[in-house]
Specification:
Helices cover 43% and strands 15% of the residues. The protein is an alpha/beta fold. Bound molecules: 4'-deoxy-4'-aminopyridoxal-5'-phosphate.
Length: 390
């Protein structure tokens, strides 16, 4: 079969391949980015669905406007730390759809997207379908390194968009400092580029203070904020959103029409009902409590079972932490050894567009029980020790 050129750029996601293996019950998986399903409000959702069917069943099952359900968009405006009117919000099928649309709107084949190094694999894959090239900006504990960003901006006339995850980044779990955020906006202004601020995890902060969003520093309407209920509520309903200036949001609405007309009408009403008439804040507090305990357990187990010479990030929230091994260790090869011991993680190379960094991996702590976290890290420690001896 003859396929479009863009198909040559898209490869099966390593995480998806891995996740297939990790469905086996004996596997302790730190690989996916799955929320804890035992925290999904299943019982409440039964009553919510019945209520919606009783009160507005016909409209919940009918086509509805592309922009999304107005009361949900109003509720979203109240959640964010920047000024936004309902007209600046478009409901999408998860924030993943916002990523896809962003490249569709800004990227011609061969254009360059600037991103963090490492960055979210799912975004890189979505962008690759538009035949984008990438420039990776170095990162440290405070996020993207601005001197490196400035150098890359100077050297890259084909740059068309900057993609960043400033809060509890996937895959590192790091959060950008306020100073970097301010400088970042100055540079984006200077080089006149649109910024995709992808923020699925910011609300899940266990400690410290949430820094202002990039969008809150944006005075020129160049930041496009992507939000989602996947991590604060549940991912299965596929409800996310885009918030952008009048000019930009209209472009997103146009491509949304062509992609799928609108987001699921029933799911939008269900989420709206939960966040307005149930204890949404209490629900998030509960998620944070459980994830904090799991993060703490994972960090303690790492201290106890991982050998010296291994470093890791310290996430103040979110779902992930990032482990770096000595440079001579290839974590992809090591992942097969870990799988023999029934433990899975995602090798770090997957999170770099050019895939050439080989000694790190991502650990997810939201989806396994306390016992499995400790046991899995213990087994992983033994696998790492073995590799470092060899
Ligand atoms: N962005 C980031 C950084 C993510 O980690 C994820 C999900 N893992 C998404 C976007 C997509 O999330 P969703 O489509 O479920 O909102």
């Amino acid at each position: 079969m003859k396929y479009a050129d863009r198909m040559g750029k898209i490869k099966a996601s390593e995480i998806r391949e891995l996740l297939k293996l990790t469905t086996k019950p004996e596997i302790i998986s730190f690989a996916g980015g799955l929320p804890a399903p035992e925290l999904f409000p299943v019982e409440q959702m039964k009553s919510i669905t019945t209520k919606i069917m009783n009160e507005q069943g016909e409209s919940a099952l009918q086509y509805s406007p592309t922009e999304g359900y107005v009361p949900l968009r109003e509720a979203i405006c109240k959640q964010v730390d920047f000024e936004s009117s309902v007209d600046n919000v478009l409901i999408t099928s998860g924030s993943q759809q916002g990523l896809d649309f962003s490249a569709k709107i800004f990227i011609n084949p061969g254009d360059v997207i600037i991103c963090e190094s490492p960055s979210y694999l799912g975004a890189l894959n979505a962008f690759k379908a538009y035949e984008a090239n990438f420039k990776e900006v170095a990162t440290d504990e405070e996020g993207m390194i601005m001197e490196d960003l400035e150098r890359i901006l100077k050297e890259t006339p084909m740059a068309r968009m900057i993609y960043v995850i400033p809060d509890f980044q996937n895959p590192t779990g790091r959060t950008w400092s306020i100073e970097r955020r301010k400088r970042f906006i100055e540079l984006a202004n200077e080089y006149d580029l649109p910024v995709i601020e992808d923020n699925p995890y910011g609300a899940l902060r266990f400690e410290g203070v949430r820094p202002p969003s990039l969008k809150s520093f944006d005075t020129e309407g160049r930041v496009i904020f992507l939000g989602t209920f996947s991590k604060t509520f549940c991912p299965g309903l596929r409800i996310g959103w885009v918030q952008a200036s009048d000019e930009l949001i209209n472009k997103y609405i146009l491509v949304k029409q062509g992609a799928d007309l609108q987001t699921n009408s029933l799911a939008q009403r269900e989420i709206h009902e939960f966040i307005t008439n149930y204890d949404f804040e209490g629900h998030i507090e509960n998620i944070k409590k459980v994830y904090k305990r799991r993060r703490d357990l994972m960090l303690e187990a790492i201290e106890k079972y991982f050998p010296e010479g291994v470093t890791h990030t310290y996430p103040e929230g979110g779902l992930f932490l990032w482990v770096s091994l000595p440079e001579y260790i290839n974590t992809k090869e090591l992942s097969y050894k870990a799988l023999e011991k029934n433990v899975a993680y995602v090798p770090g190379g997957s999170f770099y567009p050019d895939g050439d960094k080989k000694n790190s991996f991502r650990l997810n702590y939201s989806n396994m029980t306390d016992e499995k976290i400790v046991e899995g890290i213990k087994r992983l420690g033994a696998v790492i020790k073995e590799a470092m001896k060899a």
